[in-house]
Amino acid sequence: MRLVLIAAGLGLFVSLLGTPLLIRFLRRHGYSQAIRVSTEGELYPEHEGKRGTPSMGGLAILAGLLVGYFGAHLAAWRAPSVSGLLAIYLTVGLGCVGMADDYLKIFKQRSTGVRARTKLLGQAVVALSFAYFAVHFPDADGRTPASHAISLVRNTGLVLPTVLFVLWVWFLITATTNSVNLTDGLDGLAAGASVMTLGAYTLVSVWQYGQNCAFGEVANCYDVRDPLDLAIFAAAAAAACFGFLWWNTAPASIFMGDTGSLALGGAIAALAIMSRTQLLLPLLAGLFLIITLSVIGQVGSYKLTGKRMFRMAPLHHHFEMLGWQEIQIVVRFWIIQGLLVALGLGFFYAEWVRQ
């Protein structure tokens, strides 16, 4: 538990104090994201006041995460686990994909960034390589970082062949990263929701460590490899995101950009896959799912009926078009996320009690 607190403290310190330094650097060089504006055929919420706000704030989150995670291991003179390194790989790898997208938005002033197919290809390379490595490197007991089994709170009896497992992991990572990316449309919305999800995974991993099968085979133990290291990773990520939120909340002094949203999506997906809680994601990351479903519903409705379900998708922009204030939307969506995360943690604990 001491290492979890060290990781969180370092992650918070670096992100909270490092973000304003990043803001000054980006402003000095004029690195700000292009703002989408309404056109004759497409209305868009009025965000002119955000023009000139620097982006790529995800770099501060990644810095806090890396310093928090590796700093905790240095403090205890403890080698990182394979699970922790794989989580770092997925997070940083997807962050680099997002950084390429931010580069076009900032340096080329192209508000749409990288083409969708190019971004998906980059995500696929990182996700598929992660899936491959995650079922290798067994420990002394033969446990690999990830399992071929579909998991809810622990592994189920549905075991996938390697090819289907790799495709399943690819789907989970792509869905999670793009969900966080879609949610990052209002000041502090994605960052605040991510803090809750990552905080929940810190609690889940700490609990799995205390009840781990490595300490003795009992009926309700968790067969998860490296749960303590996953808790250290989750705590560092949550704290780094929390420190960034200080500067990202409305009115934002900096945006996380795709660098941050894709990295956070990768961190959440890595934790779900390696903590054996894949199907618990719809609750622990519930707000991201709702936002994504609003986009799917909007596109599907328009193609099938020629009519839109919402004034604009993603869902938070629909409420902007209705006249809601940005801070009102963000806080109410945070409340929804908090309720869903609490429900997910309650389901996780209830399953253990029921055993």
Distinctive features:
about 350 residues, mainly alpha, two-stranded antiparallel ribbon, 12 helices, about 0% strand, globular
Walk me through the topology.
Elements: H1 2-28, H2 58-76, H3 82-107, H4 116-134, E1 149-151, E2 155-159, H5 162-183, H6 189-210, H7 227-248, H8 257-274, H9 281-284, H10 286-305, H11 315-321, H12 326-354
Antiparallel strand pairs: 1-2
Main location: membrane
GO molecular function, one term: phospho-N-acetylmuramoyl-pentapeptide-transferase activity
Subcellular location: Membrane
Describe the structure.
The relative contact order is 0.17. The longest helix has 29 residues, at 326-354. Strands 1-2 form a two-stranded antiparallel sheet. The protein is globular and about 55 Å long. It has one domain. Helix 5 (162-183) crosses helix 10 and helix 6 (189-210) packs parallel to helix 12. By secondary structure, the protein is mainly alpha-helical. It has 12 helices and 2 strands, in the order H-H-H-H-E-E-H-H-H-H-H-H-H-H.
